[in-house]
Amino acid sequence: MVKADAYGLGMPRVVDALRHEASVWAFGVATVAEAEALRACGWHGRVLVFSPAPPGEFLRAARANLTLCLSDLDGVARWADAAAAQRQNLAFHTEVDTGMGRAGFAAANVAEWGPAVARLTADRLRWEGVYTHFHSADEPDLRATDEQWERFRGVLGALPPEPLGSPRRLVHVANSAASLRRGGYHLDLVRPGIFMYGGAVGANVRPEAVANVRARLVLARQVEPGATAGYGATYQARGHERWGTVAIGYGDGLPRVLAAGGEALIRGRRVPMIGRISMDVTTVDLASVPDAVAGDVVTVLGRDGDEEITVDQVAALCGTISYEVLTGLTPRLPRVYV
Ligand SMILES: *Cc1c(COP(=O)(O)O)cnc(C)c1O
Hints:
Blueprint: H1 3-7, H2 11-18, E1 26-29, H3 32-40, E2 46-49, H4 58-63, E3 67-70, H5 73-86, E4 90-97, E5 105-106, H6 110-120, E6 125-132, H7 143-158, E7 170-172, H8 176-179, E8 213-223, E9 228-229, E10 235-236, E11 241-246, E12 263-266, E13 269-274, E14 282-285, E15 297-304, E16 307-309, H9 311-318, H10 322-327
Parallel strand pairs: 1-2, 2-3, 3-4, 4-5, 4-6, 6-7
Antiparallel strand pairs: 8-11, 8-15, 9-10, 11-14, 12-13, 12-15, 13-14, 15-16
Helix pairs in contact: 5-6
The structure holds pyridoxal-5'-phosphate.
């Protein structure tokens, strides 16, 4: 999954790093525009567009030779029209809604839509895959996942068989979390996202720190007792303190709500953020790093020496998930690939 610019890390370089892996069967994106960007990277292989495409984008999707994920009969009919208009063979996967409630054919109505999809899959259309998406595969308790799995198996059993001579439809269900639980739900394909980018998926397996977010200390100075920091002057120096100004703020994607409890690493030591995060800068208390000077590297996410601030720790402090922290990094923050 390389949607949302590869979870904020930069799709072109992520695709470059993965494209020659034998295990990569396709790249998954959310939108037709993302798929077109992927084509512009020189990827000519399969691209699955997982979110329902707006009706007006089906022709564009056909021109880019994409594989759409379809959730209703109108979509299948529209895709057949696009194939006919473009005189082009096109593949699609059907999503099955087993509880996610955002897309997919209803699992309970398979007896209706199954045969109807098969009927519409004529001439230039190819029904290549069937999948569902788990809503709680990262929860310690897998009962909800079991229920979704059972519903999905029921659908698979009730689908009309592939036409004689056609390959078996590919079946897939696993996001990162599911692919690391139980047997991994390794059916024909898995759809890993966040784990590749350094996000944890439950306690079982620790991800590598894939993304580090670093900035520069641009000022380090002594302040008088009573000095205040940031908009709203929410922090006040209790005594003589030494503060540092770090050149990163919410305009770079450092979540503004992080300031309460947020920390950064300088010279392998932890420093607390103080006051509110501004658009462009963040103030830290340098008490634990008296030798810090302007120009020092400040790590707000990732590893410095023996210390690490994980994306999940940042997310927890912000009351959100790793996905939102990574995809929230803005273009102002240069991506440097090592
Ligand atoms: C985003 C997405 C994934 C990847 O999920 P992760 O939790 O990031 O591994 C898999 N499947 C679908 C349909 C998705 O939209």
